Amino acid sequence: MEPSEAVFTRRALFLLIALLLGETTINFIDRQVLSVLAPTLRGEFHLSNSQYAAIINAFMATYAVAYAFAGYVLDRLGVGRGLTLSVSWWSATRHAHALCPRPVEFRFLPRPAGRR
Question: What dihedral angle (degrees, nearest 10) is formed by the CA atoms of 93, 97, 100, 104?
């Protein structure tokens, strides 16, 4: 390929930038929603502060471990395929959460005294 050849057209480049900006924005909002909804979630599921902290810590630990593998996967697959895979996986897991009839992910937490 000669240096004067463009890899992307101007329109394709703007579309790529818009898609990456949208993906990054949604990812950022998704991570921040746990802190914004803390009072609502604690009240609805009758969680103590320590129980809610356990949920947040589990989320952050999983996130940290995933970062270690994400760089490797992006290097192996390339940015285009890697981002397609990550956005598809993230979307599939978000949709799977909607299929849960009750908060089964909270089962590992100890129950408050007096509750069944």
Answer: 90
User: What is the rounded distance in angstroms from the CA atom of residue 51 to the CA atom of residue 44?
Assistant: 13
Report the predicted TM-score, pTM, of the whole model to 2 decimal places: 0.56
Kindly give, in sequence order, each residue whose CB lies less than 8 Å from that of residue 82, ignoring residues fewer than 6 positions away: 70, 73, 74, 76
Q: What does the pLDDT look like over 44-74, one tens digit per residue? A: 878 888 888 888 888 888 888 888 888 888 8
Give the side-chain half-sphere CA count within 13 A for 33.
7
Residues 86 and 24: their CA atoms lie apart, in Å, by 12
Amino acid at 34: L
